[in-house]
Amino acid sequence: MPPVNLTTWLIAALAFVLAAALTGAARKFVLHRGMLDVPNARSSHLEPTPRGGGIAIVAATQVGALALYFFGQIPLNLLLALTGGVAVAAIGFADDLEPVSYALRLAVHCLAAGWALVCLHGMAPLDVGSEVSDLGLWGLILAFLGIVWTLNLFNFMDGLDGLAGSQAVFVLGAGGLIAGGTAGAGPAALMAAAAAGGFLLWNWPPAKIFMGDTGSCYLGYLIAVLALNAGRGLPAAPWVWLILGALFFADATITLARRMFRGERVYKAHRTHAFQWLARRWNSHRAVSTTAVLINVTVLLPVGFLAGQHPSNAMNVALITLSALAAVCLGVGSGRQEHEQPVTDS
User: Fold this and answer.
1) Coil, strand or helix: which one is 48?
2) 71-104: b or e for each residue (b if 16 or more CB lie within 10 Å)?
3) For residue 88, what are the CA distances in angstroms to 5, 51, 94?
């Protein structure tokens, strides 16, 4: 496939404008339907806010993907894999309208992950240390779990104004530019980043609309699928994408592990992620989201770039980066029970 070029940028611009316009329209629709996220004891926001705006991201991204395919920027198999995200978004939208059982949502997520792997022809060989290894069945299992986990963790981490939207713009944009591979992931990722950016205009603190499960699960699905697809041309790509998304991976994984250890129902709403502790400590969504952006740009972007340039070290760099961020998240309070006080500044 061709590298990122003028056609890609023009389609990305179209996706940005379309997402921004559709988000405004979606806000009017959900207000009319009364789809408001009303604050409760588990919420991080204080005012009733429209939700379900992620439908604009989905529509703009799917239109953009069709345009990329039509102009020869992405292959058919990637277009089909991305389309699997529509099912993820649909069950998310249904849940935004009326609560859907977690079992049903998980079943749809698993079906979408299986669809993506069929379209992508499984998992490509991966840089493991100094060798490029075909992981076979284990790679397939790892990829399947990776897709399901990524789309769920993105949903778990969508709890503050602008946080998930800005993370999606960063991971998709940076991943597309520095680790897009040669199988079309670069153009698709930049276009999806632009669509998320159009939504972010409405979601940056103070948010005028939330993306809801519709958008958060869909974006997580896109990130996982594009990271795997990028590995077709760049075996170190999944490690690079893991580094770029390390903030979300570290916080969500540590929080989930601690809650599981305590025997809590992990799919129930809570306020124990590190970013939620920080938002209460700083009394500001904007401060937390801005801090995340700064960490992404000043730390994870250069680290991810270096990992891509030195693929034999990419796995080790990813593991070190995740471990370091996990330690930070633990210190901030990832997974700490809500009746416990967060670590205070000293």
Assistant:
1) coil
2) eebbbebbbbbbbbbebbbbbbbbbbeeebeeee
3) 30, 16, 10
Task: Say how far apart CA 342 and CA 335 lie, in whole Å.
Answer: 10
Nearest to 338 by CA among 37, 38, 43, 39: 43
Residue whose tokens read 């129902």: 265
CA–centroid distance for 183 within its chain: 20
Q: What span, in angstroms and rounded, lies between the C-alpha atoms of 242 and 322? A: 8
Q: What is the pLDDT of residues 89-128, one digit of tens each?
A: 999 999 888 889 989 999 999 999 999 999 999 999 999 9
Task: Name the pTM for this structure.
Answer: 0.93
Instruction: Enumerate residues 6+ apart whose C-beta is below 8 A from 50.
Output: 26, 27, 30, 31, 35, 36, 37, 208, 209, 210
Q: Are 155 and 213 in contact (CB under 8 A)?
A: yes
267, 97, 47, 245 alpha-carbon torsion, rounded to 10°: 50
* Inter-residue contact 242 to 265 (CB < 8 Å): no
Task: Look up residue 338 and give its DSSP letter.
Answer: T
* Burial of 186 per CB tally in 10 Å (0-12, 13-18, 19+): buried
